[in-house]
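Lab notebook, bench 4. The sequencing result for the construct came back, and we need a structural model before the next group meeting so we can plan mutations. Quick request posted to the team channel:

Model the 3D structure of this chain.
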Amino acid sequence: MIVRALREIIGTEREVKGPAWTSRRLVLAAEKVGFSVNDTVVHAGAELEMWYANHVEAVYVIEGRGEVVDDETGERHQLEPGVMYLVDAHQHHTLRAHTEFRAVCVFNPPLTGREVHDENGAFPLLTEEDQ
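Done. Here's the predicted structure in token form:
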């Protein structure tokens, strides 16, 4: 059993920062459970264009307000605590944070902890063997 507190991750290599977000990686590929879990904060006013070409992502909002847009269909969904969205078909999408926005994100295949968004908004497909 693994028990891990967010306070133990902040300030370590498991806390990864981008220009408009901070991702605290609670469960990674190294744990060998088939998925990863992040506690992610997106700064107010941020607009993130993303395309998870290599991953499926579930996002469960726990704080803040925003919207996610399916860039392929134009469909918009309002986000607030208690709402979940699933990027299940590698859709190009845009996340807009109207306020500071916090969510729990689950990825499959699991992240290694070294991923950052590339120029297309995607994470590369890394494995533990890519060290």
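The longest helix spans residues 6-9.
Will bring this to the meeting.
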